[in-house]
Amino acid sequence: MGYELDNTIALLERTPASLSALLGGLPECWTETNEGGSSWTVSTVVAHLVHCEYEDWMPRARQILQAGEAEPFAPLDREGHARYKGGKTLAQLLDEFARARAKSLDELRALKPTAQDLERRGRHPALGSVTLSELLATWAAHDLTHLHQIARTMAHQVREAVGPWARFLGVMQCAGHSEAG
Amino acid sequence: MGYELDNTIALLERTPASLSALLGGLPECWTETNEGGSSWTVSTVVAHLVHCEYEDWMPRARQILQAGEAEPFAPLDREGHARYKGGKTLAQLLDEFARARAKSLDELRALKPTAQDLERRGRHPALGSVTLSELLATWAAHDLTHLHQIARTMAHQVREAVGPWARFLGVMQCAGHSEAG
Questions:
Q1: Cα separation, B167 vs B40, whole angstroms
Q2: Residue in chain B lying closest to A144 (CA)
Q3: Can you state the angle between helices B132-156 and B42-55, rounded to 10 degrees?
C-alpha cells in the first residue's frame, strides 16, 4: 500500500477528541503522576503534543516544500513542553491541543501536497534525508506513541492495586521504548 | 494511597467515548489490520472489550460478593470475542461497548461496595485468591492494556511509511507483552 495522505489526516483529526474524552476531568491521581524518576506525567505529554504542533510538524512540512534539503530542520527542544505547560490545567492544554491541531490540518489541507510533493526531501538534524510523506506518517505515529505512553503511565498507577493480575496485563510489562519521546 | 473506587469508575466511564472518538469512521487500513500472524485487529480488540463487559467484570464482582471463594470464576474463553463480533461493524461494536459499559457501571454503583466488601475474596482459576478491589483495579488496567495495544497495532501499519523515524518512536519498539490479552 502506498502512502495515503487521507488516512493520515483521518487519524490526526481524531486524536484531540479522543484524548479529551479520556482525560478531561479525570482525577489527578491518573494525570499528574508519572512512572517514576524524571518520566512524564500525562499532562506533560499533552503539553509536548501542543509544543510539537507549533514547532515540529507543519513548520517542517513547510520547510521541505519551500527549501528542501538546503538547511536541516531546527532541532526540537526536548524540554520545550515546559514553555507550553506553564501554569495551565490539563483541561486548558487539551483545548489548546485541539485548536492547534485543527489549525495545522487546515494548513495541511490548503497545501494540497501532490504525489511529487510527498516525495520531496528535507534534512533532519540527526536522521539525515527524509521525505515529506515520512514526516506526515511520523506525525500520526507520534500521536500513537504518546497514546501508548499515556496508557502505560496511567496503568503504572495501579501496578500494586491489581495484585496478581499484573502478569496478565501487557501494559504492566511495557517499560517504555522511546529513544526520544 | 489506598484503593479508591471513585478513581476507577472515573476511568472506566471515559473509555468508551475515547475509543469512539479515536476509531469511529477511521479508515479500515487502521482498524481491520493486525500486527501479523494471529494478532488482533483493532475491531477484534473492541469485540473483546464487549465480551469482557458481559462475561468478566461484573459477573465476577457479583460472584465475590455472593459466594466468596467457594467456587473459582468461570475461565474466560480467549476466543469468546468471536461470538460478540459476528458480522458487526466497528461502529456497532463501539456502540455496544458503550451501552454495556454504562450498564456495568450502573450495577457497580448500585452495589455500593463498602471498604469491607472491597477486601472480600474470590478465587481466580489460574491466579488463586484475589480481592474485589484487585478485580476492579484490573478492570481499569485492562482498558489501558487494550488502549496500549490499539495504539501499537495502528502504529504497526505505518512502520515502513515513517522511514528512519521508526527508531525515535517508542511504540514501534513495543513487541507486545501480554501473557493473556
A1: 24
A2: B151
A3: 170
Contact: A165, B21; criterion CB under 8 Å:
no
A151 touches chain B (CB under 8 A): yes
| pTM, rounded to two decimals | 0.96
Identity of the residue numbered A114:
T
Neighbouring C-beta atoms of residue A172, cutoff 10 Å: 22
| Encoded amino acid at B3, one letter | Y
Contact A165, B138 (CB under 8 A): yes
Q: Is the separation of the CB atoms in A145 and A178 below 8 Å?
A: yes
C-alpha cell at A31: 494525570
Cα distance between residue A8 and residue B106, in whole Å? 37
- The amino acid present at B161, given as its one-letter code, is A
Q: Which residues of A touch B24 (CB under 8 A)?
A: 14
Phi and psi (nearest 5°) for B122?
-125, 180
Residue with cell 491541543: A97
pLDDT in tens, chain A (181 residues): 457 999 999 999 999 999 999 999 999 999 999 999 999 999 999 999 999 999 999 999 999 999 999 999 999 998 999 999 999 999 999 999 999 999 999 999 999 999 999 999 999 999 999 999 999 999 999 999 999 999 999 999 999 999 999 999 999 988 776 544 3
Residues 6+ apart with CB under 8 A from B161: A3, A133, A134, A137
| CA-wise closest residue to A22 among A149, A169, A179 | A149
In angstroms, the CA B45 to CA B50 distance is 9
* DSSP type of residue B72: B
At A77 the three-state DSSP class reads coil
Test the B interface: residue of A1, A9, A11, A26 with most B CBs within 10 Å: A11
DSSP B7-59: HHHHHHTTHHHHHHHHHTT--HHHHS--SSTTPPPHHHHHHHHHHHHHHTHHH
The Cα–Cα gap between B170 and B89 comes to 30
List all residues of chain A from 156 to 175 with a beta carbon under 8 Å from chain B. 158, 161-165, 167-174
